[in-house]
Design goal:
Length: about 500
């Protein structure tokens, strides 16, 4: 399909540059703002290790929020559990797993492109350049379930291209179990089948193929039902869709809500190539990219949650459209160089902001656990509240994200509780500095302070007098107060 304008030298240079980008950004891509990493890892940990499928750590409930793995994600949780349990759920290991997921996806896309007529060097260049874009660098460095979903989606597409339609329908449906954005997997299949019809100038469905895909989809739904037998009851408990996720297009956040509108050049390139693609009728040669690109674009308006991390599901077919529209003489060098010139400065800024909070330094946060243990408290009966960065430290204990506690206006648990808060501006907009948190977690006693990555943290303690000797009341050993809901009002 693509003219042979590539050389082993040019492809090798592109490969070295892309690998260098991934090596430099490994563990350094916004670790201080990626609340999604401990958030979704906590779902997997709670499901596999503690047998809990609700979001007891970060406090979201389905369907107004993800709610853990109660409705989606148990397959991804099993993958993460099998891969990360031997490494004590290290964030570095989780990062390796995400990178491996993206690498496998690119290998599947390479196989798909070769099957569609691309030369091997052209397909490699396309995949390497796609991997260098920020949606995929972000997917590789943030341990969301999206990388599993995307891998299943492109596997389903490859199976459809190879005419293994039963497996294709099955795998694509499993992608939906992993994450709702998996709905893009059957969209890819529909786009591919429509493209085959247009190429063959055949305007009727192959009923046998449709039946095989439908049967595969039914088998996938059966797996979903086994994993989530109470899904209908959960949906019935909140019948008003307006109460679910906030509604907006998932590309809006990517293009129009990022700092300095830094992704608008990508949108401009896509729009220009789309017009040229239509004007030259390039889609006649291979209709899949334009059908899938426009279908995923418009599907975004129907999704109830506009999360810009969904961008790779649109980016993949749209990048193929751009790749095919650019002249063959420019694909080998100019397009990869353009992508690297566009994104590398952004990665440099992200590295400068994030490297001192790198996952490789997360072990230093163990000082917080040591400080609490030095109080002589039985940690197995303690309750710890803190920012999302502390989940890896206390994952095996009763740990809860501070905003979840005061947002849900929960009662202070019995026993001994600890609050870990920062004197510096928080990483997440939902988190608060110590002075504000103490308005919620009142009657607590300062017991320790420590520093990490240039940030100062305080540890406060509160002991329920019902759980200790009341003779300690008033002496700093415990606090006497009514057990009532704590409100920010």
């Amino acid at each position: 399909m693509c003219a042979n304008k590539y050389s082993m030298i040019s492809v090798s240079i592109v490969a070295i540059l892309v690998v260098a980008v991934y090596a430099v950004m490994f563990g350094n891509y916004r670790p201080h703002t990626a609340v999604d990493t401990p958030w979704e890892l906590s779902w997997s940990y709670n499901y596999c290790i503690r047998g809990i499928d609700t979001d007891v750590t970060f406090g979201t409930t389905f369907p107004t929020g993800p709610g853990g793995t109660v409705a989606f994600g148990k397959l991804a949780a099993m993958v993460q559990c099998a891969a990360l349990a031997p490494f004590n759920w290290s964030l570095v290991a989780a990062n390796v797993l995400s990178v491996a997921g993206v690498a496998l996806s690119m290998a599947v896309i390479f196989t798909f492109l070769v099957g569609e007529g691309f030369g091997r060097l052209g397909a490699v260049t396309c995949c390497l350049t796609l991997a260098a874009t920020e949606p995929f660098v972000a997917m590789a460095n943030i341990s969301r379930y999206d990388y599993v979903t995307f891998l299943l989606a492109v596997c389903g597409l490859l199976l459809a291209a190879r005419r293994h339609l039963l497996l294709s329908g099955f795998i694509s449906t499993l992608a939906i179990e992993v994450h709702p954005i998996g709905i893009m997997a059957p969209i890819y299949l529909i786009a591919y089948e429509l493209g085959r019809m247009i190429q063959a100038r055949r305007y009727h469905l192959e009923l046998g193929g449709v039946a095989k895909m439908a049967l595969g989809g039914a088998l996938g739904l059966a797996i979903y039902w086994i994993l989530h037998p109470h899904i209908l009851a959960l949906l019935a408990a909140s019948p008003n869709p307006a109460e679910w996720y906030p509604s907006s297009h998932f590309l809006y956040g990517y293009f129009f809500e990022q700092r300095l509108y830094r992704h608008l050049p990508e949108l401009s390139v896509f729009a220009a190539c789309l017009l040229v693609h239509i004007w030259r009728r390039d889609y006649i040669q291979w209709p899949f990219p334009i059908i899938a690109s426009l279908a995923t674009l418009f599907m975004g308006f129907l999704l109830p949650h506009g999360n810009f991390y969904y961008t790779p599901f649109w980016y993949f077919p749209s990048f193929l459209l751009v790749f095919l529209t650019v002249s063959a003489s420019l694909r080998a060098i100019v397009l990869p160089v353009f992508v690297l010139v566009l994104f590398v400065p952004q990665y440099a800024v992200a590295y400068v902001w994030g490297h001192k909070y790198s996952y490789a330094r997360q072990g230093e946060l163990q000082v917080a656990r040591s400080a609490i243990a030095s109080r002589g408290t039985d940690l197995s009966h303690a309750h710890i509240f803190g920012d999302f960065t502390f989940w890896p430290v206390f994952k095996d204990l009763s740990f809860e994200w501070s905003p979840s506690f005061w947002f849900n206006q929960r009662s202070m648990p019995r026993g001994t509780s600890y609050l870990i808060c920062s004197l510096d501006p928080p990483f997440s907009p939902q988190e608060l500095v110590c002075a504000d948190e103490l308005l919620v977690f009142s009657d607590m006693q300062l017991v320790e302070k420590f520093s990490w990555a240039g940030r100062d943290y305080l540890i406060y303690e509160w002991r329920d007098c019902d759980a200790v000797d009341r003779s300690l009341a008033g002496s700093g050993g415990c606090a006497v107060r009514s057990r009532k809901s704590i409100s920010t009002n």
